[in-house]
Design goal:
By secondary structure, this protein is an alpha+beta fold. The protein is about 25% helix and about 30% strand. It has a domain of about 120 residues: 2-Layer Sandwich (D-amino Acid Aminotransferase, Chain A, domain 1), CATH 3.30.470.20. The strands form 3 sheets. Strands 8, 9, 10, 11, 12, 13 and 14 form a 7-stranded antiparallel β-sheet that branches. Strand 2 and strand 3 form a beta hairpin. The radius of gyration is 18 Å and the shape is globular. The C terminus is likely disordered.
Length: about 250
């Protein structure tokens, strides 16, 4: 059988046409990048862990009524998702000061914010995904006023769910990024959570020790990224004790 048609290849995932109209197969790679891809490496097993963790979070969101593109996991590295029209924004929710927010505002890393802060960045790697305001979004037509209300609601509901689930296993949700896609049902459009939710797109700290369990381990050379992601998976019950995420890539036929 011939390989399915590749639709898109990004830094961490490759998208292929799905088996049915309106579906896509999302393949998780082992590639790790940071600083707008200036730092690169291949971390064996990372794609497997992100696939399983993203499935865990997406299924949980679907169960509480937060719509996502996730349909099912196909194997260790692939999942079947709905095809969506991605809104060209990265939606960032921050609960504690870290990363660029701490630098921009001169805050000590780890400072708890008065309330969750939602920020938006334009999805454009060539520009370094610049921070944009709702005024920019409205002026350039990237999303409507109703879209922005829906996006904010989705982001805060994801935050409530994720923060509660992770705190229950001793992990603090410092911040995270999601993407949102449009789906059309007849004459109506709705927005759903798309892309992935994994330690690649979150900052996760151990509640007691402050140990980083996210991609900052790679960014800052703090140890084994696979060990950090595996710890998250084990605490959530996604990966049994003693299991390893090392699985050779599988190709779609």
């Amino acid at each position: 059988m011939s390989r399915r048609k590749k639709i898109y290849e990004g830094k961490a995932k490759t998208l292929f046409e799905g088996p049915e109209p309106g579906t896509i197969v999302q393949y998780f790679k082992d590639d790790a990048t940071a600083f707008n891809a200036e730092k690169r490496d291949v971390i064996e097993g990372k794609g497997v862990l992100n696939n399983m963790l993203s499935e865990y979070f997406m299924v949980g969101l679907n169960m509480i009524g937060v719509p996502t593109h996730f349909i099912k996991r196909l194997n260790m590295r692939e999942q079947l998702v709905r095809a969506v029209e991605i809104v060209p924004l990265e939606i960032i929710v921050r609960n504690y000061a870290a990363g660029s927010l701490a630098k921009r505002l001169g805050l000590e890393e780890g400072t708890q914010l008065p309330r969750p802060i939602v920020e938006y960045c334009l999805k454009d790697d060539k520009l370094g995904d610049p921070l944009v305001s709702e005024e920019h979004i409205a002026a350039f037509g990237w999303a409507s006023a109703q879209d922005m209300d829906d996006i904010l609601s989705l982001a805060l509901r994801v935050n409530d769910f994720m923060a509660g689930v992770l705190y229950g296993v001793g992990i603090r949700l410092v911040d995270f990024k999601i993407e949102v896609g449009r789906v059309f049902e007849g004459d109506f459009q709705r927005l759903i959570v798309a892309d992935e939710i994994s330690p690649d797109s979150c900052r996760l700290w151990d509640v007691e020790t402050g140990q980083k369990l996210d991609k900052d381990v790679f960014r800052r050379d703090l140890g084994s990224l696979t060990d950090a992601y595996t710890e998250v998976a084990r605490r959530l019950g996604v990966m049994p004790k003693g299991a390893t995420p090392m699985a050779r890539p599988t190709l779609i036929n």
